[in-house]
Amino acid sequence: MTRTVDGRLAYADLLRVLATIAVIVLHISGSYLSQTAVGSSSWTALLTYDALAHWCVPMFVMLSGAFLLDPKKSVRLRDIFLKYILRILVALVVWGTLYALLDYGHTDWHFTWSGIKSALNHVLWTDTHYHLWFLYMMIGLYLVTPILRAFVRGASRGDLHWFFLLVFVFYSLLPTLQALFPNQMALPVTWSNRFNIHLVLGYVGYYVAGYYLKNYTLGRIAEFSLYILGILGAVATVWASTVLSRHQGSFCDILFEYRSPNIAFMAVAIFVLFRYVLGVSEERSRRQRLGGVARISFGIFLVHDFFIMLLRHFGVTALSFNPVISVPVLSAAVFLCSFAVSWLISKIPLLGRYLT
After folding, report:
1. In this structure, what is the dihedral angle of CA atoms 307, 333, 339, 105, given to the nearest 10 degrees?
2. What's the number of CA atoms in the CB half-sphere (13 Å) around residue 270?
3. What is the C-alpha to C-alpha distance for residues 172 and 198, in angstroms, rounded to an integer?
4. Distance between CA atoms of 58 and 141, rounded to whole angstroms?
5. What number of other Cβ atoms are within 10 A of residue 149's Cβ?
6. What percent of the chain is helix, strand and coil (3-state, nearest 5)?
7. For 247-293, what is the HEC assignment?
8. Cα–Cα distance for residue pair 163/169, rounded to 1 Å
9. Is 207 exposed, middle or buried, given 0-12, 13-18 or 19+ CB atoms closer than 10 A?
10. Across the strands, what pairs with 335?
């Protein structure tokens, strides 16, 4: 595996940077899908960008699991709380408060003490800005990390395959089929609910998948099968969502769920692609630059919506001009501004590393 000079995995850094960009693309394109006429050229462009960027959140989870679940990496219980969870909590308090204040006063930029206290109360009750949900989910994964590390340390490859099968059936396939065909799936879903299998629910499947894909070598047949499934997942996300939306007359987001099979196939295929195909470059300067951006990708993720809100305040959105062009242009602008701010924040002594 190609590594940067400080031991970082080059393909993981590249994936982290691209996943951060994909989040920005998702938020810029997806915000206006419900406000655009279904089937119009603008709607189709927004849906396509949004659909093809939805692998980003599972990717972040897989990258975390790839390193934190690796038995070769020393991760003590105190590290979980003092290094990982503490960083998330500080970020939640600081960024959650800033976003809460902006959400409260951004319309007329008029703040009152009662309004400020109300905004802070929203933070206390976890009613924070929409994209910060990811931080709460990561805290949950960190809490079960010691248990999952023990599991993967003692599990055989066959054990992991069985685990992934259960995850796919009970967390991904059945809920998606239930959403698509509620009447026909009533009996299977009733049975699955009776089983009360919670160990394989939530984002734990992606978390363990990151460890598996980083530490186990896939055969050529498995590798190319995943590429095919990833392409089919991408096509299904765009095509089937278009058909479903036209049928109901409004945007249908069933296949945009991060747990849906089509999104899972996309995310896994991209991870495998970067590990086996695009993660082999030895060009040192490029890998060093990627490592620098990857180190503050958390900060870019946290700060990017400030710039989306700022653009919206001045009337600039994905619908301001042709979305085919506006989405990548605005995404690039938001990414560069977010990178600059995140880089500056990272230079703050002590606090910087908790906020970026």
Report:
1. 0
2. 26
3. 13
4. 13
5. 18
6. 75, 0, 25
7. HHCCCCCHHHCCCCHHHHHHHHHHHHHHHHCCCCCCCHHHHHHHHHH
8. 10
9. buried
10. none
Which residue has tokens 């190319």? 224
How far is 252 from 245, CA to CA, in rounded Å?
A: 5
Q: Are 102 and 306 in contact (CB under 8 A)?
A: yes
Along the 356 residues of the chain, how does pLDDT read in single tens digits? 445 445 578 899 999 999 999 999 999 999 898 889 999 999 999 999 999 999 999 999 999 999 999 999 889 999 999 999 999 999 988 888 888 878 765 555 555 666 667 667 776 776 788 899 999 999 999 999 999 999 999 999 999 999 999 999 999 999 999 999 998 998 988 888 888 888 888 999 999 999 999 999 999 999 999 999 999 999 999 999 999 999 999 999 999 999 999 999 999 999 999 998 865 554 554 556 667 888 999 999 999 999 999 999 899 999 999 999 999 999 999 999 999 999 999 999 888 888 88
The token duo for 278 is 């695009």
User: Tokens 């392409």, residue?
Assistant: 231
pTM higher than 0.85, yes or no? yes
**Measured between alpha carbons, how far is residue 24 from residues 138, 200, 286 in Å?**
19, 29, 22
CA neighbours within 13 Å on the CB side: how many for 38?
Answer: 15
Q: From CA 318, how far away is CA 27, in angstroms rounded?
A: 10
